[in-house]
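tool_call: predict_structure(chain=1)
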Amino acid sequence: MKNTALVNATGDASQNLQDFELTDLQQFAREGVYSSNASKDFHLFYVGRDNVHEILKYVLSRASVSLYINMFGYDDDELNQILMAKALDPTITMLITLDQSQAGGVHEKALLEANKQNNLSAFNTHFVIGQSLTGQISHTKGFVADGKVGAEGSTNWSVAGEGIFANGTWHVSGPSAPAGPWNPGQGYKAQNNTQSIFTDPDTVNRFQTELIAEHLIAQRQAAQPKPAPPVKPAPPVKPAPAKPTPAKHTVPPKKK
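tool_result:
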C-alpha cells in the first residue's frame, strides 16, 4: 500500500513509483495542496517556498527499475546516500553523468572511489564525468526515474540550492496551517531556483533519451587518450670555448 507519509523509502520495496501521482507531492508545497485546476502531469516547485529537498528524496528513494541522472551541482549528503544505495543494487539500471568542472567535490570523489572499490558497472551502474558535446560545462540538472517520473530545473543539489530551514523544520498539515518554513530565522538560506516534476510520457521519454545521449558523449570523451604533456625543449648546448691558436714564429731572413 502506498505510504505518502514516508519520505525516504530507501530499502522498502513496497514503496515505488508504479502508482506514483503528482498529488503525492502536494504535501511539500507551501499550501499543502494543489490548485483545483493544477496540471495532472506537470508541477513546478520553488526553492524557498516549497520543500524541494523532500520532493527529491521522495522520488529518488522510490526508484526501483532505472535511474538516469545528469547533475551539474552534486553536493547533498542525504541524496548521495540514497543514490549510493541504488548504485549498489543490481536490479536497478543507473546512468550517472556529472560535470567535469565540479568533479573535485566530496560527493563526486565518493562516487569515483565507490566505482574503484566496487566496480559499479557490475551492479548495472554506469558513472562518468564529462562535458557537453562541444566541450562546455554539462549544465543539465535532472533525472528520469523508472521511465515514469522526470525532474528538471535550475536546482543544484546543495544546501543553498535546495533551501535549508531552521533545524530542518517544515510544517505540513494542509491549507488550514500551510506547509512551509516556520520562523526560519538567521539559519534560513535559499537560492532562487525552480524544480519541476513531470509524468507526461512524451516529455519523460524525450528527456530520458537526452540523458542517455549526454552520458554517451561523456563516455566517449573519457575514453579518448589524454594528450601527452608537452615536451620541454632541451636547453641550448653551449659551444665549447675555442682553443687559442698558437702564435706562428717567423725566422728572420739571413743577412747576405
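agent: The first helix runs from residue 52 to 60. Proceeding to next step.
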